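**Sequence with structure:**
===
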Amino acid sequence: MSNLKLTSPSLGPIHDELHLRRRKKFAKWMLESTNGGPSVALFHSGKEKIRNGDNYYPFRSSSDFFYLTGFPEPDAWLLITCNEKENFSDTIFCLPKDPLQELWNGFRVGPNNAAKKFFFRKSYSIDMLGKELEKKLVSSKNLFFPFSESHEIDTVVKTIIKKIKNQSRGKKIPPERFIDVAQAIANLRLVKDNKEIDTMKKAAQISSLGHIRAMKFCKPGITEYQIEAELLHEFGKSGAQSVAYPSIVASGPNSCILHHKAGKRILQESEIILIDAGCEIEGYASDITRSFPVSGYFSSPQRQIYEIVLAAQKAAIQATKPGADFSDPHSAAVKILSQGMMDIGLIKNNSLDEIIDKELYKQFYMHRTGHWLGMDVHDVGDYSKPLQPGMILTIEPGCYVRPSTDVDKSFWNIGIRIEDDALVTDSGCALLTRKVPVEISEIESLINQ
């Protein structure tokens, strides 16, 4: 059977005016940044990518495109125009209806239905893109698009601009300014609206179910990839369209590899297992990490490191509140981690201030305490902005002890990370993923049910 595609449930269209409001908000920024000059913005959903031979990866729209449109199909284009009179227009270009292709590869919305179903002013087949874009560009002073992000956009822009320049004797003039949209869209995406928050709560709930299932399933003698299979089963059964990122299932020494992928390694009774996994639903990610003993009971060295990391996470959670710098939770976590490393002898002969100032803790904790979360698992957004309600970030301190001559052997190959998704609220933050236990007594109780 030829031309097979690895399909997954498509992102469902949202049948309201949410995305239209986002497009209008973006158009307002276009006008403000150009003093009302006539402007055009261009976005592309992306193309399907070949996995091998004639098999394709499941398609996922560009996050910026989907944020503005809710349109789930490949090779679709969004054109937004506005001018000094604040006239706003949006046009979608999409694949035409094709009964044979739809028989093989699934339903297409088609240009006749796209405008009404997704609240666009106009809709055309993609074969009209060049003609319509040229028409808009010759009457615009500014062209907005994501720079160096899409080969397809770069090619289309270059082709149309060259064509217009070749017609300069006919008084056709291309736009005077090219403006990158990346930061503007990132600023819009950084603070989530109620719909986004509800969707991310749902993703967090499904991911939590997956982690609980994995914890209950875990036992000596099984493999990392069997644990991953339990996660994937729960994600799919509960309605997730995909994983948000490749799942990390890391046992024993692998728990000290930050992005270890699940492999054939067999879990041993005396080890820690670290699971970092989350699902994606309706284009939005979740991101959870839990670390726990394969045996079901923490050994003394495992307990000591785990309690330090948990205390660091609690300190970071307290620091996550409106008005705080993004780095404040990290600073709070580093202080607790550094003190803990000193207390149990991981770092010797240095004061707390020296450990922090010289970054000696980085032998055991080498990453940041969090990142923005949204449509991308490492979401877009300005990290210099103070925290404000509606922002969602991860809180994920860790401690990873690799074999070393200056470290007690009882701590070797213990990697602990605890990660939750935090919604900044008016008074602090709310954890979306705390249904998965973090307290030692609760973890041991769950595993040994």
